[in-house]
Amino acid sequence: MGFRLISRSLRIFTGKIKRMEYPDPPAKAGLCCPRECVEGSPPTYAMYEALKDSCQNNATYFQPDDSENGQRLYQGFMTLIDHIDTVWPLVDHVRKVAPLYDFDAKSPGNGYRSFVSVVDSCVLHGLKLSRQVCTGRDALLFRKGYFVKEVESCGQLLASLGTCLHHLQTLLSWAPPGELFPSEGHSPEELFSQADNINQYCFYGRCLGFQFLPSMRGILKGISICMAGFSEAYYSHGNLISSVWTGGQYLIDPEMRARRIVNISQSASIEFCKAFWFLAESEIMKRVPSLMSSTVAVNKVFTIAPEPLVVNTTEGKELTVLPPTVHIGLQGLNVRLISVNKRAGMVSEGTSSLPASDGILFHCHGGGFVAQSSKSHETYLRDWAAKLGMPILSVDYSLAPQAPFPRALEEVFYAYCWMINHFKEMGTTGKRIVFAGDSAGANLIAGCTLKILSAGLRPPDGLFMAYAPLLVSFIPSPARLLCLMDPILPFGFMMRCLKAYASPNAKGGKDDKRSNKELTSSNATTPVEGNGFLKVSPSQEGISEGPSSFEEVSPSDLAELQAHKSGSERRKSSDTTISAASLQSEHTATGITPTEDKSQQYVSDFLERYVFDSDTDSEGRRFPIVKPNKRDLSHREPESENSSTLVGETPLKQDLEHTDKKRIKSRINEAATGIMSAMSSRLAYITGSNNIRPTQEELAVRTNLDSLIARSPSDEFIFSVPKDPLLSPYWAEEQLLKKFPPVRILTVHLDPCLDDCVMFAKKLKGLGNEVGIDVLEGLPHGFLNFSLMAKEANEGSKLCIERIKQLLDLENHATTPENNHL
C-alpha cells in the first residue's frame, strides 16, 4: 500500500513537471507565456508579475518550515522578488530604446535587444522553476536540497543580470541614439568601475545555457564539461586517469564546473585555448564529416609554393605579388578544394567531362585567429558545396600567436591572387567569385577585400560574413558584454585571442620573451601540418641524431616521432601537388638543410622498420599505425595488441632466456605501462605541456585554478590594439567601403560580435552599398560547426546557402543538368 502511494505521488509530480515545459525558444516563450497581462502593458510585464506571484506563494508556504532547507527556500524566493523589483525598471527602459539601434525594421537585432532577451529568458527560467516547486512541494519525494540550490542559483543569475543592466545604462549615456559604440574615448575600465563586479560563476553552473535554444543547451553543457575536464589533463601533464576521474565530477557538480570554467577563462594561457579547440581536429572528429555530411567527389588539400605571382589589375596592368614573409618567413600555404562533382581540368584524380562551373566560393575558416582549419569546418562546407553545385576553396592560413597580424591576412590575399591565375585547376571559369567566412575568417575576407580594392585587382562579386568581428578592439558595447556568459567564447578566451593576434607582445613579460624566442628559432625550420593547424615545435622538428637502440625510445619520443613522420607522410597520402602551382619540396620550402633532411630520412626509415605500419582511413587515405608484435600476439588479449608495443619492444636475445611465466608477466606489466604512458604522452603532446618546463607563474596559475578568484573583467584590458583598417575593417576609409561588392551578413542575437555586424552594415548602407543582415535567435557564436547536431543550427546553415546564392546570382545563370537535382 505504501509503495503504491509513493508511486502515485511520483507520477503526479513528474507529470505536472512535464506539462510545464516550454518547447518554444526563450525569447518567443517569454513573450507568449502569461495570458493574464494587464491591458495596455507589454506581455512581458505580466511574465514578471507572474514570477513575483509564484515566488510569493512559495515564500508563504515555506516561511513556517523550521528546517534549514525550508528557511533557505523562503529566503531564496524572497530574494528573487527583490531582484525582480530592481531589474524590471532597468530592463523596461532598455526594451523601449533598443529598436533605435537596429539596422532596419525588417532586421531587428543589437546588443541591447540581446540583453532584454537574456533577462526575459532568466525570468522565464525562474517562473518555470517556481511553478515546479509550487506543484511538487507537497509530494512525498520532493527534494528540498535540490531546489534550494536551483532557486539560489536563479537569484544569483538575476542579480548578475541586474549589474549588467546598470552597465547598459552607462553605455546608453556614452553614445547617441543609433550608435552602439561610444562616441568618445571611453574605456572598458571606466565602464566596469561604474558598478559592482559581475558574478560570472552563475552563468556557467546550474543555469548554463538558459538563454539558448533547448536543442543547443545539451551541446553547450557538454562542451563546458569537456573544457573543465580537459583542463585537468592539460594542467596535470597528460595524467589521463586523474583527469577523467576529476572531469566526471563536473558532470554532477555544476558549482565545481562553474568555478573551474571561470577561473580557466581568467587564468589560462592562449596555448590552453589552442589546445582545447584543437580537439576539433582529433582523428575521431575528422571522420565525422565523411560519415554524416554530404558526399563530395573532390576533397583535396594541396600546397601553394611561396613564389612571386603576376596578376592583372582591372586596368590591364601587371602586378607582382610577393609571398608572405612576415613573422615566420617563407612557408608553403595549404588550401583545401571541395567539390560535389569532378570537373574538367580540376585538381583531382581522374578526368571528367563535366564542364567547369561558372562560380567559386573562396572561404576562410573561423577559430579566433588561433585555432582550427578547413578540416574542422568541413561539416558545413561539404553541405554548401553540394547545395551550391560549385567548388569551394578554403584557405588554411597561419595561426597566432606564432603568426600574428598581418600574416594571416597576407596569406589570404596571396591565395586569392593565386586562385585567379588558376581557375581551371579549381574547376571554374571564374565568372562569379564570392567570399565567405565565419568569425575570424569573416574578418579576414573583409580585410582581403580592402587589399584587393587598394591594389586595383578584380574584386569578388559578393561577401558573405557570419558572426564577424569587424572591430578588433574591446571598445565597450552591449553585445561585447555577452561574452561574460558565453559558453563557446568566454570573456577571457576572447581577450586572449584578440591579444595573440593583434597585440602579441603587449605585456613584454617572461612568457612573451619565451614565445618570441621560440618564434625566432622556428621561422625557417617549422613546416605546417597538412591541415594547416598544428605547428611542429622545434624540439620535435630539429632531431639531429637518431636513437642508438630501440631501448632508448620512450613513449613521448614515439609520439614526437610519429608527428615528425606525419609531415612527410602527409604529402604522400592526403595532399596533392600540382604542376600549375610550381611547388617546391617540403624541405626546400621550409629551409631545412640536407643534414636535417638526412636525419629525417633516418627517422622515417627507423619508424618504417620497427614501429609504424600503415592503414587506410574512411576516405581511402593511408596513415601510420603501430606495428603489432607478432611474437607475443598469442599471449595477449585483443584489447592490448596495439597498445603494448607503444613503449617499444627490445629485440635482444636475453628476452628469449626468460621463462614463459616471467615473459608473460613482463609483457602484461609492459602493456599496462604502455597503455597509460602512451595515452598520457599523446595527450601531453597535444597540449604541449611536455615541451616547455612551466614557469613559477604558470605553476601558481595551475594551483589557483580551483580557488575562487574575485576580480574585475577590466584586468584583461591592459593592452592596446592599432587602429588599422586591415585589422578592423570598420575603420576603413569611406572611399574604399563605397567600392565594396554586395554584402550579406548573418549573425545571432547572443553573439558578442553582434554590434560589430550591425554597425558595419549601417556604415555600408549609409554609403549607398547593397547590404543585408540576418539575426537569428537562440543560437551561439560558431553555430555552423553544430549544423549536424541541432536542427536550428542546420536551418541557419541553409539560410547561409540562400544568401550565398543571392550573391552568386545563380538565378540569372544557366545550371547544368547534373546539378539540377541538388
From TrEMBL:
One of its GO terms (molecular function) is triacylglycerol lipase activity. Residues 508-517, 562-574, 629-639 have a biased composition (Basic and acidic residues). Residues 47-347 form the Hormone-sensitive lipase N-terminal domain. It holds the Pfam family HSL_N. GO terms for cellular component: cytosol. One of its GO terms (biological process) is triglyceride catabolic process. Residues 362-507, 723-784 form the Alpha/beta hydrolase fold-3 domain. InterPro entries: AB_hydrolase_3, AB_hydrolase_fold, HSL_N. Residues 518-528, 575-593 have a biased composition (Polar residues). Residues 505-597, 617-650 are annotated as: Disordered. Transmembrane segments: none annotated. This is Hormone-sensitive lipase isoform X1.
